[in-house]
Amino acid sequence: MSGLTVDRRGALALGLGGAVALALPAWAQDAAPADLDAAVDAIVSNFMKAFETPGIGVAIVRKGQVPWLRGYGVRTMGKPDPVDVHTRFGIASNSKAFTAAALALLVEEGKLGWDDVLTRHLPEFKMHDPAVTAMFTVRDLLVHRSGLPLGAGDLMYFPQSTADTVQVMRGLQFLRPVRGFRTGYDYDNILYIVAGILIERISGRSWRAFVSERLLAPLGMIDAVPSRELLKSDNVAGRHARLGPPVRGIGPMQPVKPDEAPLIDPGGGINASLADIAKWLEVQLALGELPGGKRLWSAETAAEMWKPQVIMSSSDGATDLNPARPVMQGYALGWMVQDFRGRRLISHSGGLSGQVTQTAMIPSAGLGVAVFSNTEDSVSGGIRNAILDHLLGTAPVYDWVASYVARNKQAQDEALAEVSAGEAKPPEGKPSLPLSAYAGRYRDAWYGDIVVTAKGGGLHIKFVPTRAFRSVLEPWGTDSFRTRFPAGAGEDAVVTFAVAGGKVTGVRMKALSPLADFSYDFHHLDFVPVR
C-alpha cells in the first residue's frame, strides 16, 4: 500500500500546503532539469510511481507564452486510452470560482449586489436562526462563514439521491450551526447550490445555461460542460480509489464509478480538459481580459473575487515536512488565498469520488498551474507544489514526493491504529431489544427517511432518498449496527439506536472509517420515529 486516499477536506489541506507538522530530515535531491518538459516529466513520473497513479494531466500558463499542456498515463487502469490535453476531468470544487464569476457578472450588470440581503432575491431562504437569515448576504453564500458545520447537508448529493433544489432550500433551516455567524470558517457545498438558484432567479437562465453562455463559450472552453450529465465525448478520465480492506482509503487501487448528483453542479459539477482550464487560468491572470482586449469582468471585480473574506488557518510557517506551509490562509469568492514561498497564491482544489484536481496561480509571477488526477490520492497537490517550485526557481530543490509519502504514511498509520482500536471490529455490547423492535421508519428533517426492516433473522436498512444506500445491518456494539454497502458505494455507517423504556426513540449515525470523506456527513443526521 503505497498510497492513501484524501477526502475533500484533505484535498483542501494537502493540496495547499496544509498544516501538517512532523519532524523529518530535510529532503533534497540533485538540481532539477532546467528544461520545462524534462522537469515536469520527472516530477510527474516520480509521483505516479510512488502513488501507483493511473493518469495525470498538467497545464501550465505563463504570461505571454503558449500554454504548456501534457497528459500522462491512461484514463482508466487496465485500458490503453491515454490521458491527453482534451481528456475531460470532473474539476469538482474548482467549479466554485465559476459560480463566483457568474455572480460577479450579474453584480457588474447592477442586477444584484454582493452585500444585498439574500431574502431580497430569494424570499424563501431560511437558515436555522431567523436572525442569521435576516443578515445573510449574497457574499455569504460563497465564503464558508455561515456557521454551518463542515460538509453540512452533503448527503443530499454525495452519493446521488432524489433531493432537488426545493429540498435544499427547505432543508437549510434544519441544519444546526456549530459556530456563530461570520465567526469562523467551515467549508460547505450546500450554499453554492443556493448560489446557483440565485443565478437562475436573477438571470432567468439556469445555472448550467448561464455558465455555458457567459463563461465557457466566450473563453473557448470547447471541451467543457457544466455538468457530468452533459458529457458526450468518450475522452473522459476514469475514477479510481482504494476500497480496503479494512476501510476505504487503504488497499489496492480500483476503478470506481462517479456518484455525485447533478444537484451539486454549481459547487462541483464542471467537467473540463487541460486545454479548457488553461484558458480559465489565463483570463484570471489577465484580471478578466480576453485575448483581443474584450473583458469578461473588470479588474476591480477581479480584485474583489481574490480578496480574502474569512481566515481559514494560520501557522508559524514552514516545517521540515512542508517548507511551503502558509503563515495565513483565507477564503475569498470561490478562491483560496495564501502565501507560498513568499508570494501570494490564489488556488482551489476539488475532490470527487475517484478524482482530485488542483488549480493555482501566482499572479506576481504571471504563473498558473492546473493538475488533474484520476485518483483519490493526494498526488495532485504534491505535483502542483513541485511544479510551482520549479517555475519559481526555488532552491534547494525540495523532494515533494518524499514529503507526500511521509504525510500519507502518517495518516494511514493513524487510521489503522484507530481501526485496530475498534472501528473495523465490533465493539463490546449487543442489542438490548429484540431485532423486531428496531424496525420502522425514521425521519431526519433535512435529509428524509430511512426504513429499517427485520427479515431473515437480521436487520436491513434503506436510505429512502439514496438508492446506493441499501444494506444489511450487522450488530456493532450496544444498540448499534454497521452497514455493508456495495463496494464503491460511498462510506459505510455505524447506526446507533437511542433506546428508552424498551422503545427506540431516535437514531444517530457516524461514518465507520476514520478516513471517510467529510461529505458523508452521517453525523449530522438526527432521525426520529415516524408515528
Briefly say what this structure is:
With 531 residues, the chain is of the alpha+beta class. Helix content is 26%, strand content 21%.
What does this structure look like?
The protein is α+β, with helices and mostly antiparallel strands. The protein is 26% helix and 21% strand. It has twelve helices and 20 strands. It has helices at residues 8-14, 36-51, 96-108, 130-135, 165-171, 190-203, 207-219, 265-268, 274-285, 299-305, 379-392, 400-423; strands at 55-62, 68-73, 89-90, 239-242, 253-256, 271-272, 310-314, 328-331, 336-340, 343-352, 355-362, 367-373, 440-444, 448-455, 458-463, 470-475, 480-483, 493-500, 503-511, 528-529. Strand 10 and strand 11 form a beta hairpin. The termini are far apart. Residues 1-33 have low confidence and may be disordered.
User: Care to count the β-strands?
Assistant: 20
Which bin fits the share of residues in helices?
25-40%
Name the average pLDDT: 92
Number of helices: 12
Low-confidence stretches: 1-33
Strand content: 15-25%
Shape: globular
Radius of gyration: 23 Å
Biggest β-sheet description? 8 strands, antiparallel
Strand order of the largest sheet: 2-1-12-11-10-9-8-7
Terminal residue distance:
48 Å
